[in-house]
Amino acid sequence: MMANKWWQEAVVYQVYPRSFQDSDGDGMGDIPGIIQRLPYLKKLGVDVIWLSPVYKSPNADNGYDISDYQAIQPAFGTMADMKQLFAKAHELGLKIMMDLVVNHTSDEHEWFQQSRQSKDNPYRDFYIWRDPVDGHEPNNWASDFGGPAWAFDEQTGQYYLHIFSKKQPDLNWENPKLRQAIYDMMNWWLEQGVDGFRMDVINLISKAMQFPDDPSVDFGKHSSSMEMVANGPRVHKFLREMNEQVLSKADIITVGETPGVTPADAIKYTGFDAHELQMVFQFEHTVIDDSKDGLGKWSDERFALTDLKRVLSKWQVELDGKAWNSLYWNNHDRPRVVSRFGDDRPEYRELSAKMLGTVLHFMQGTPYIYQGEEIGMTNIAYDKITDYQDIDTLNAYQDLVVDQKLVSPEQMMTYVYHSSRDNARTPMQWDATTQAGFTTGTPWLKVNENYPQINVAKAVDDSNSISYYYQRLIALRHELSIMTTGHYELLEPDDTEVYEYKRVTDDEELLVIANFTNHNVQRDFVVPAGATQVISNYEDDAGNMLRPYEAKVYQYRK
Ligand code: GLC
């Protein structure tokens, strides 16, 4: 077992800058808005703030399409604002982790503008260009946002690869000059004061350069070649090099977003002696309610608790002692957890949000909280598809409903309500004033109408709120070392209603019990004599009777 590192005891809070806090009335969150809210995050008790991209971008994918890595998105502020954010955060003892999007850039990045000029441009090999094959795309790869992953560029008569939108050409990591440019840029950010990197789809950076066809592609079903491209032949070489040239030089926190990884893959990236990354975001628990008809996340299936337990337990057990888990329920790409794995109806929303917080925060790993999760923000259901802004949602609608006519508009809206990325992206609900206190102008994405009931001001006034409960969970992580170090043991794997697990060290244990239903259930777990209750979302303890969404944790010596 490795020695404890600060990032293993830390709690991370993700800010989606566009939707967090607007300070100038343009309807878009910004960096001064984040600075204004730092005391709130300090009070919550988190250690690290992960910022989704704030770089200059034409916003085809809300900043995940970067046109200048060393400039700030004007709507978000200036480089001076960014430096101010580092300074103010550091004054409060908060660290800032930036999103690093280096699998691709925007097509408006200077490198790509150069690259597309001519086949002998010095930047040509910064991207992946191929000749047509029989007048068509070089292979059948599908973009994660729909359609082929190759776009034809008239000027030079070749295709370029884009695993995401056409406006997000993939970088060519085979080119040492490109790699050096990325490392230089990362080192520059370290000099500016950044404390870590969350690396966007980092396991896609190494492509199989023979470009074999993807046997799983079905354009009729809006499939994606993302997993085909994942964990490519030279990815570990590239990450080790990045570690050597950048990451190992500073005491920072790193987490890679890695679709399609298994625990064995994760150990290769994050094993305690791998010299690559510290953590990965695995995707397995986020796909347990995927479509049974092969439409990926476009589904309205309800998850099964036994699947959730199976997947999370596998990660807990297989990484234990070898690598470190990231723990997350949701982020800017995933629906709101209280709507997805809990119950967002008014009578159960707070109870189930606290229950879910308990289940996640008591696991081994570093917890990540997504903005608004701590007040139990819910999914959104706009009446019209035109109210949605997310490129992924709009493309899927166009593809499945309009072009393929595979899904009816009504059915698709139920899928959108269940899975759209805009569920997580509605503006942060700060108070009960107009636009939830997010902006004095017109928000870029409509505020959820439930803001008068669900907002930060209300949560702060109520000592029984989800927010105070999260504060307690975060404080406990800093107080109880067993939350960091304990081994995880799943109890009753086949129970379809209750999640029970233990954390175990040589001399003590935690018992975590959570009812995932909205009714009373009786269970025969045994709480050892002398145990103390560490936390619970009910005021009293009804013993073996678990009330709707009840969660509780006991601690005892062995
Ligand atoms: C990651 C991001 C997502 C983005 C995609 C392409 O999955 O989290 O928001 O669309 O990468 O950059």
Automatic annotation (TrEMBL):
Superkingdom of source: Bacteria
Pfam hit, one: Alpha-amylase
InterPro entries: GH, GH13_cat_dom, Glyco_hydro_b, O16G_dom_2
Residue span, Glycosyl hydrolase family 13 catalytic domain: 14-425
Keywords of this entry: Glycosidase, Hydrolase
Example GO biological process: oligosaccharide catabolic process
GO molecular function: alpha-amylase activity
Family affiliation: Belongs to the glycosyl hydrolase 13 family.
The name this protein goes by in its record: Oligo-1,6-glucosidase
Species: Weissella bombi
